[in-house]
Each structure stands twice: as C-alpha cells, then as structure tokens.
Amino acid sequence: MLNFSFDAEQESFRTMIKEFSLHELLPLYTKWDREQKHPRHLWKKLGELGVNGLRVPEEYGGSGAECVTAGIAAEEIGRGDFNLTYAVMLNALVSEILANHATEELKKTWLPGIASGDKIMGIAITEPAAGTDAAGIRSTAVHKGNHYILNGEKSGISAATIADAFIVFAKTDREAGSRGISAFVVPSDLPGVECKGYDDMGNVPIGRGSIYLNGVEIPEGNIIGLENKGFAQVMNGFDLSRLLIGLQCVGAAFQSLDETIAHVKSRHAFGQPLAKFQGVSFPIVTHYTQLELIKWQAYRGLWLRDQGKKHTKEAASVKWLGPKLSQEAIHECMLLNGHYAYTKEMPIEQRLRDVIGLEIGDGTAQANQIVIAKEIIGKDFRSY
Asked: In the chain, at which end, N or C, are there fewer CB atoms within 10 A of the end residue's CB?
C-alpha cells in the first residue's frame, strides 16, 4: 500500500514551523544579509523549538525524529529564512556523524549543545585543491603520543566564521587515498586554528570561509570512529544533507511563487489582472509543477532512508535539480514582480543569490550526475 500523507504529529509540526517561519523569520530575512550578521539568537530559538536536534538521539537532548520530519522543517524554514535552514541541514549531517561514530565522551560534549542551539558545528572537507574529488584532500593529521597534530587549509566551509567547532577531515595515511582519511572534532578556539570569512554573493549570514590549521594539537579522543575510516562515514551522511538541501531550496521557491501569485492577482495591465494572461500564468504553472516533482522525490528519498533502504540516486537527483529548478523559479518570480523585485527591499533577489550557492555546495550538478550514472549504469563504468 502507498501512503503519501504525513501523520498527525508531522502535520502539527509543519503548521507550527511554517507559522514561526513566516511570522518570525521572514520579516527579518533580508536584514541579516544587509547587515552581514548571523542571527545567533534565532538559531538558538530554533533549538528551543526542537529544530536543531531533530536528528540528535533523545538521550543527548534531541528528538531522534524521522528524516521525513527533518525534511518538513527544511522546507518550511526555507520559506522564511533560507540561511537558517542550515540549523536543519547542517545539524542533521553533523548529528548523524557524531551519533553513529563518535565516542560517548564526544557525544555528551557536543550533541546536547547542538540540539539546544547553544553550539554550532561545521563540516570541513573541501580544500583549495580538492572539491568534488574529496578523496584528494591534502590536510594531514599525525598521531604523536596521545594527540594528533593537524595541518592544512579548508576552503568554502559553511559556518567557518560562526562555528564553535568543526568536523575536520584529514589524511592519516597519505598513500591510501580515500581509505586514508580520518575525521576529528576540532574546536574553533584552539591554538593554530584561524578562520577567515568570504565576501560572498549569497548565504552571507552563514559565515562561509576558509579554515587554516597550523600545528593544531587535539587529544586522540577527538577522532571520530576508526582511523582512516572518515571518508566512508561522511559519504552516507551526504545522502541525507542532499535531500534536505533540495527541500530548503524548494521551500524558498514556493514562497516566492506564493508572493508572485498574490502580486499578479492584484497588479493590473490593459484593464485586467496580470494573472489572466497566459504569458504570466503558464510560467507559474511550469515552475510549480517542477518544484512539486522535486519535493516529492525528496520526501521519497527521506522515507527510504527512514526505512533503511538505499537512496543514493534519489538524493543525488534532488541535489542536482532541486537548487537548479528553484533558482529558475525564483528568477521567473523576480521578472513577474517587475523592477521592485530587483531591489533589496524585497526578499526575492536575496533568495536567488542564496539558492545559487547550493548549486555548488554538497556536490555540483556534474558530481551528482556522476553518482546517478554509477548507480544506474554500474560502478565499473564510472569515470574515476
């Protein structure tokens, strides 16, 4: 039997989050971009609402909610403040890595703070010479006594300037490729850690930037899981974050469509509402239909994950097309709203800038197409 409905608890959660998103987040969405500030108090508020700890087990202060429920939060918060959706997407990825692989001490130290919103933890994989080919990272972690010494540079890291700690991926065996990578919890205030922000086109409040590791000494207990197993640990997590990214982009696009529909109903030209012209209504219908298809593919992928079933190609397809089709929809909405939408007085232009950033992050379109090809054609025919 197929059932495409959310249960009563999920519907109640959706209503609560949507109301908060539209009434508390949306009115301030453009403020943080203009002022180049991260609204830490709102991140904390989302923690109080249970958003940050959706994928944190109950024994560490979270709710251990289903992935589908996390998807609901990503979609609805994306309507109000695209950048605060990182409280869902980034926290879900971090929480799963820690909950599934970290020591009990690391879990107790970090997961409660992540769930409450008191702590922000980023993921540091990408480097200047290793993006799509994450296995090509050059940062190193050398085991000396009861510590590891980390050196290297991470680039394009979300939350680089606002995080309290990072899950850093570094080579513990330089000759073993992806089989020689380990993951570590690295607090951002340790000696030798330097974080510098970027002057980005979008996603400004999330504090993207570079992290420089210069002889950073961390206890050996800060390793996550087994040495040389870090790459395998994070790859499965990307199947979750990619689905959530698709939904946060779709949420921003649906909100733009809703605002545009209201505009074209009230704006008149040649004696009638713009909405009566097929040149206006048909593009809206096209984008609505495309977004609905991505939305339900995303929820299907999250459902598969909740069931313990394979969902890699579903996640890759959502990550490939979700940001692409969302930015196309938002761009159309800008045009339909006219020249006012090109100003920073309206949120549409910022949504366009913010969503475009996630056409790159967590895997480019090409990288995700490679993943899908490997899944449906076979890994023996992959290009690497």
From this structure: N
